[in-house]
Amino acid sequence: MNKQLAVEPLPKHAVRASLPPLSLKLAVIATLAMGSIDVLATEGGGNSYPIGVETNFNAGMMLPEGLHTFLYYQYYTASQLKDNNGNDNPRVASFKVQANAVAVRLSFVWPGVRIFGANIETRLIQAYSMTDLTLDIARPPPLSPLDKGGHGSGLADTVLVPIILGWHSQTYHQTVGVDTHLATGAYNASAAVNIGRNYYQVAPFYALTWFPTDKLDISAKFRYGFNTRNQTTNYQSGDEATIEFSVGYRVTPAFAAGVNGYIYRQTTDDKQNGVVVNGNGNRGRVDALGPYFRYSFTPKIAVAVKLQQEFHARNRPQGTRVWAQASLPF
Question: Which InterPro entries does this UniProt record tie to the protein (predicted)?
């Protein structure tokens, strides 16, 4: 959405470009209620970008010319909310989030068009998310915890990637582009859970896929997101840097397995009304690692499942992501 339901078929030693990086906005963790508690990195502790979607060997790949469709499903669950030191947050009496998201990505590789020797691709992504949140804020006795939980569902913010440039050789593939997350999702500042973020994000990225042998593939995507200010809450979420990666091995011509994960770091402070939030800027961070499996039915139809277990979280939830991805001819 992170990265995808989309998986591409295994090319023969990647002679042809096959799936490009994906920039999908799955509202994996919807925005938690503003004003409820300042313990989360970025506003509400969520992200415009679905971290972990761009693992698997397609990160630097680009499909053949024409229109292509990708499907994504992601399940995320977390029962730990970490503070600035990586400990369970003492200000939270009870926490649990469960989110399900599905998304469709349309990718069009422009026939016969080249810029600086690169193929050109345009992407449009739309997700639908459902999130259940349990959030009880601890209060001094004799007061009972304050319930700030809720449920949210609906269309997430639309993602547009107008131009992606892709360069490809026999064993090395690379793409560059800019993800643009539009503030199109439903948003209500008084709601406990919002699917829309109510601000924009612009994120340049570079992705690569390398085939050191005909059975081994190594992929990575480097991304840096700049967030605009939420005009309703006057909250400015900090910039976000993400590295997604995978190393895979082709067991048979159709079946591949490997490890995948991500590194997420918030690089600047959150601010509200121009003041650094919570005294430390609520800078979030988290790492994740897990296995993935991919199967190609035909050169154009493939499915994959992957697990990403989070650890080392700061100022955000720490949980587990499960992805199911599919690539289909249009």
Answer: FApF (IPR025737)
Mean pLDDT of the chain: 87
Strands 255-266 and 285-298: antiparallel
In total, how many domains does the chain have? Answer: 1
pLDDT, tens digit, 9 for 90 and up, residues 26-52: 233 333 322 333 445 567 667 889 999
Token code pair at residue 17: 């470009």
Q: What is the pTM of this model?
A: 0.86
Instruction: Give residue-wise pLDDT tens across range 218-230.
Output: 999 999 999 999 9
Does residue 194 belong to any structural domain of this protein? Answer: yes
Report the percent of the chain where pLDDT is more than 90: 77
**Tokens at 227, concatenated:** 């967030």
Over residues 117-131, the mean pLDDT reads: 97
Note down the domain range covering 71: 31-329
182 in a structural domain = yes
* Of 42, 38, 29, 30, nearest in space to 137 by CA: 38
CA–CA distance, 242 with 218 (Å, rounded to integer) = 17
- Within-domain flag for 22: no
Q: What is the CATH number of the domain that holds 175?
A: 2.40.160.40
Q: Specify the DSSP class assigned to residue 138.
A: -
Q: Is residue 175 part of a domain?
A: yes
Identify whether the C-beta of residue 91 lies closer than 8 Å to the C-beta of residue 37. yes
